[in-house]
Design brief:
Elements lengths: L11 H18 L3 H7 L4 H9 L18 H14 L1 H12 L1 H8 L2 H12 L5 E4 L15 E5 L2 E12 L6 E7 L9 E7 L9 E3 L9 E11 L4 E3 L7 H38 L1 E2 L2 E2 L4 H26 L8 H26 L10 H11 L6 H13 L10
Parallel strand pairs: 1-4
Antiparallel strand pairs: 2-3, 3-7, 4-5, 5-8, 6-7, 9-10
Helix pairs in contact: 1-4, 4-5, 4-8, 4-9, 5-8, 8-9, 8-10, 8-11, 9-10, 10-11, 10-12
């Protein structure tokens, strides 16, 4: 049983994207999802399929060989892939909603020519390097420094919890100018994984999304050419801090789309099981208490999807709006966990067994509410947007 997605609201291209990505996800990706999770193996096969179908090219501008579509279309595809396999969806999340969008929006012509065509071909695989041991939710507390060195720069610092680090061959690295702190002096550079001064990447096991592990990046005086700087960190400027917040919004929309996909898969599995399961001489699905629980799950799912669609269609200076995106990610993250938890209960002990997919859905969903901004940080953002009162959490000196 498939939970209905309102295709009648889409134009022909969007409807084709949904139907094609759903077919590919179910026929070619879903049969291997448990394997990628169990073996903690990168779903290279999935990535190659998605590249073959043109999904890595979705949001790359047409003049660089892409399809030139928006965040909304990217999220339609991400939902379908995530409903089959989160790890597979994560392989193209960064291509569709991550650094390539930043390059297309803010990069130099040389940077666009160097990276965007390779992204279309699946040859450039990006990861975002922002989080640091002391800079998680407080993203502007980062310490990685970009120091002038002749005609270029040197990059020094440590990044952690970087999704897909071991399989990326390029990074968007956030850094700061020497002798700056807080939101002052933040910038970003584009670094290839084979740069001198980058230590061997350490990987970290995690609870969900296990086919795409996280990694630790250690830069020690890594050389950075001037043409690799996408936003130069400058003392006295807060442009980089504003950019840091805005550029995460497409990724947060993709995160919400993955949450919606997982929630949908959990609901579909629970409904299918309860149609087959009988107790007291009748299918479990017929009991009123079960029907009400399904109604609540389906309502939350649709609400999360509609919030996501609103966010993905919004546009503030070339990126989805902060308020719309924060609301969508917050509600989708919590909805995915709630629906997975409810689905496990509806299956009873079978929902707890690893031979059924619900425990994997639950593990996968839980991490999405941490990465890309925790649900509590999102509440701070939404509160500030709604009230106009933005209270800094930073200790006053």
């Amino acid at each position: 049983m498939k939970v209905k997605v309102p295709l009648e609201e889409f134009d022909g291209l969007q409807r084709d994207l949904v139907e094609r990505s759903r077919r590919i996800a179910q026929d070619e990706i879903a049969p291997h999802a448990a394997h990628w999770d169990r073996e903690k193996e990168f779903p290279e096969r999935s990535f190659q399929i998605l590249t073959r179908e043109g999904f890595t090219a979705l949001t790359v501008p047409r003049e660089y060989g892409g399809a030139g579509l928006g965040v909304f279309e990217g999220c339609l595809v991400i939902e379908e892939i995530a409903a089959a396999c989160l790890s597979s969806a994560m392989t193209i999340q960064m291509q569709v909603n991550g650094p390539p969008r930043v390059i297309a929006r803010l990069g130099s012509e040389a940077q666009k020519r160097h990276y965007l065509g390779r992204i279309v071909e699946g040859k450039a695989r990006f990861a975002i390097a922002m989080t640091e041991p002391q800079a998680g939710s407080d993203g502007t507390a980062l310490e990685t420094t970009l120091s002038p060195d002749g005609d270029g720069f040197r990059l020094t610092g440590t990044k952690c919890h970087i999704t897909g680090a071991a399989y990326a061959n390029a990074f968007l690295v956030f850094c700061r100018a020497p002798q700056t702190a807080g939101p002052d002096g933040i910038g970003a550079v584009l670094i290839d994984a084979d740069v001198e001064g980058l230590a061997p990447i350490e990987t970290e096991d995690k609870m969900g999304g296990r086919g795409v592990p996280e990694g630790v990046l250690r830069f020690d005086n890594a050389p950075v050419r001037a043409d690799q700087v996408i936003l130069e960190p400058r003392a006295g400027s807060r442009d980089g801090a504003a950019f840091l917040v805005r550029q995460f919004n497409p990724e947060r929309c993709g995160n919400a789309a993955m949450s919606v996909g997982i929630a949908r898969a959990a609901l579909e599995h629970a409904i299918e099981y309860m149609k087959q399961r009988e107790q007291f001489g009748r299918p479990v699905i017929e009991f009123q208490g079960i029907q009400w629980r399904i109604a609540d799950m389906a309502t939350r799912l649709d609400a999360a999807r509609l919030l996501l669609w609103r966010a993905a269609k919004s546009d503030v200076e070339g990126f989805p709006g902060i308020r719309e995106t924060a609301m969508a990610k917050l509600f989708a993250n919590e909805t995915a966990v709630a629906i997975c938890n409810e689905a496990i209960e509806l299956l009873g002990h079978k929902g707890y067994l690893t031979r059924y997919p619900l425990e994997r859905y639950f593990r996968d969903a839980r991490g999405l509410g941490i990465g890309g901004g925790t649900t509590h940080i999102l509440r701070n953002m939404i509160g500030g947007e709604v009230t106009g009162i933005r209270v800094s959490q930073r200790r006053k000196s």
